[in-house]
Amino acid sequence: MRFLATGEEMQKIDQISIEQIGIPGLVLMERAALAVTEEIEKRFSRIKTGEHDTGRTAYTRILVVTERGNNGGDGLAVARMLAEKGYLVDVYCIGQVSRATESYKVQESILGQLGIKITEDFPNGAYDVIVDAIFGVGLKRDIEGIHKEVIDHINDMPAYVVAVDIPSGISATTGRVMNVAVKADLTVTMGLMKVGMTVYPGHGYCGEILVKDIGFPDKAVDMVMPEIFTYDEGDLNRLNKRRPDGNKGTFGKVAVIAGSQEISGAACLAASAAYRVGSGMVKVYTHKDNRVIVGGYLPEALMMTYQDEKTAVICAENACAWADVILIGPGIGTGKEAECMLKTVLENFKGTIVVDADGLNLLSAHKELLAAGEISRQTGNIALVITPHVKEMSRLTGKTVAELKEAPVRECRTFAEAETLVCVLKDARTCVSDGGVHTYMNTSGNDGMATAGSGDVLAGMIAGLSAGGISPTEAARLGVYIHGLAGDRAKKRYGKAAITAGSLIDEIGPIMSSYV
After folding, report:
1. Where does (6S)-NADPHX bind (predicted)?
2. For residues 220 and 18, what is the distance between their CA atoms, to the nearest angstrom?
3. Is 496 labeled as ligand-binding?
């Protein structure tokens, strides 16, 4: 598990490290500068290769652009270290002298002692590398005037751009572009990944991202306790191990209420995904017209079908009596049969319910359905997991898509807390919250996963993991993370444009094989 820090949280961690724990700020600054310098050295040698036919030695030219804050101080230290290693370095500073921080003044004095000049006129000429050390994580205002002009100029230059901590102009908290932002090829960020570098549009400005340990103590991080976290592959150890003495009932029974008269694929995908994450038994409840298709696609699945409202209710009642977990919604439509099944499940089932797709559309149209079973949820008798994408969330909450995208973590957590449920808010960066203090933000996956059926696969995975004994919240987090990993594997195998929901299912087994 890795924490993601907002701009405010990162500033507090820095402040505690310096003022309470006693690590000198200049020590942290030097370590940050060294981290950036080392990454530039890895990518650019001091003397250019392949240009010796001119008869002259060609050196790598680097421009360091700073403001007069602590991020600018990092930049000055980078300039010094690179110059000492023989690179041709120019330093350009924006901003008023009166606003210079003490750390910046120290670094400026050191450069003066070494004869490295700082210019206040943007240098002409070609550069191989530009180091962006203008603004850091504390930026809260839109960028205008000379700062905007300089950033526009940097973006127009053909040089390789390295951002110190965060590209200037990106909000470290929201990922918003503050009117203009540096488009970096590499971002070397210190201590913790920043939330604004994870979400869009900020992520798109960062290029390659490297997180460097510069010595922030764990105690400082623990004292701040960032609210947002993510998983890496080590967290797959959270998966339950298979029991050698287990049987198919041991590993959970999932009821998949999915598909309608004209839609069969959603049931196939969701049920298959539930099996692939380890479910012992999966039973599909679908329209009678889908029997042959579903049975041919997934012969392992049990099946029960309906053809009208009466038989639809019978199916839902059977699912409530049989299953450990019920997934309802993929492809069921929003007609009376689907409404009756959802109402029956929400009012009668004592277990985990995962509501996806058309199930969410029904909840939006019939808000009284969301109240069904609320008392049982509050007492812990049942758990409700919903998996809306932002448009579905907009219908559920009455908020615009723009409002949801502006603060996805807050909106996800607020709705989860208000309705006593687990909310999986799906977007380019999916969030998972059960209303508690900490919210999960997913960092696996890619845009190739924006394909029909991908959500059905995720819903089936969450249901299957929950049936295997993992808590609903953890099942949602792990489901989202593994779903993204499957997308990343499929991208390597087929390319993003060729990813299908079926290819995601094919990658689940190899991911889980070493952990269960």
Report:
1. 70-74, 136-142, 165, 266, 331, 389, 456
2. 10
3. no
Paired tokens of 214 = 């510069």
- Amino acid present at 381: N
- Find out whether 222 is annotated in a ligand binding site: no
The verdict on whether residue 259 carries a ligand-binding annotation is no
* 168 annotated ligand-binding residue: yes
312 is in an annotated binding site: no
Distance from C-alpha of 151 to C-alpha of 144, rounded to nearest angstrom: 10
* 326: phi then psi, degrees, rounded to nearest 5: -120, 125
136 is in an annotated binding site: yes
Set out the domains of the chain in order of their start, with CATH numbers.
2-229 (3.40.50.10260), 249-510 (3.40.1190.20)
| CA distances, 359 to each of 316, 349, 413, 451 (Å) | 13, 15, 20, 19
Cβ(183)–Cβ(151) below 8 Å: no
Report CA dihedral (380, 386, 392, 398) to the nearest 10 degrees.
10
pLDDT of residue 22: 98
Reported as a single tens digit per residue, the pLDDT across 64-118 is 999 999 999 999 999 999 999 999 999 999 988 888 999 999 999 999 999 999 9
Closest CA to 127 of 101, 92, 75: 92
Q: Give the separation between CA 100 and CA 96, rounded to whole angstroms.
A: 7
Q: State the Cα–Cα distance between residues 445 and 408, nearest whole angstrom.
A: 18
The candidate with the shortest Cα–Cα distance to 11, out of 25, 30, 26, 1, is 25
- DSSP code of residue 240: P
Residue 426 annotated as binding? yes
pLDDT in tens, 312-352: 999 999 999 999 999 999 999 999 999 999 999 999 999 99
276 is in an annotated binding site: no
Q: What is the pLDDT of residues 178-212, one digit of tens each?
A: 999 999 999 999 999 999 999 999 999 999 999 99
What's the pTM? Answer: 0.93
Calpha distance 404→407 (Å, rounded): 6
- Helices within 323-381 (DSSP H only): 336-348, 358-365, 368-371, 374-379
Instruction: Quote the CA–CA distance of 471 and 187 in Å, as a whole number.
Output: 36
266 is in an annotated binding site: yes
Q: What is the pLDDT of residues 345-371, one digit of tens each?
A: 999 999 999 999 999 999 999 988 888
424 annotated as belonging to a binding site for a ligand: no
Strand, helix or coil for residue 428: coil
Q: What is the DSSP letter of 497?
A: G
| 167: preceding bond cis by omega (within 30 degrees) | no
Q: Is 456 within any annotated ligand binding site?
A: yes
Assess contact for 340 and 306: CB atoms under 8 A. Answer: no
Distance, CA of 312 to CA of 360 (rounded, Å): 18
